[in-house]
Amino acid sequence: MLYVGIFLLFSLFFFANLQVVILSLMIAIFLLSLGIVNLKGVLPVPFYGGLMKYECGYTEINSYIIFYTMQFFMVALSFLLFDMEIILMLPFLYVNYFSFVSAGLAVLFLGLLMLGLLYEVFLNVFSV
């Protein structure tokens, strides 16, 4: 509710028309309630049935816990970082005027990425 109050003060400051303020407040409350309703389906519901014994007294043989190694997590994390470098380099393709400063920044950025790659190779992250 604090956000709604801040939104109301913000809209009163920028909009002098009361109808616009009330309409924007109604939209904010609607979007807030829509987010809470959608969050209800996202939150996990605990299910303890798989961890209990069967009626005959035997426990379950297989576990539902999925184990992963830190090695695969590091490979996925490094893939994410080096995938983001492509997105960060895209603005250099659309620049009409390419000065020495922007070229130096691009070389510095690629140099930092290469240092990060060499550090990951030094830590044997990619030896899966």
Indicate the topology.
Blueprint: H1 2-14, H2 18-42, H3 70-89, H4 100-122
What is the succession of H and E elements? HHHH
Number of domains: 2
Structural class: mainly alpha
The poorly predicted ranges are none
Report the β-strand fraction as a percent range: under 5%
Whole-number radius of gyration?
A: 27 Å
Could you give the count of β-strands?
0
- How far the N terminus sits from the C terminus, by CA atoms, comes to 49 Å
For the largest beta-sheet, the strand count, sense and barrel status come to: none
Helix content: 55-70%
Average pLDDT: 69
- Tally of DSSP helical segments: 4
The backbone outline, from C-alpha atoms, is flat
Using brief descriptors, characterize the structure shown.
NDAH_ubi_oxred_su3_sf, translocase, 128 residues, single chain, 2 domains, 4 helices, EC 7.1.1.2, mainly alpha
Model description:
This protein has 128 residues and is mostly helical. It has four helices and no strands. α1 (2-14) runs antiparallel to α2 (18-42). The model has no long low-confidence stretch (mean pLDDT 69).
Short description:
With 128 residues, the chain is an all-alpha fold. It contains 4 helices and no strands. It folds into 2 domains: 2-42; 70-122.
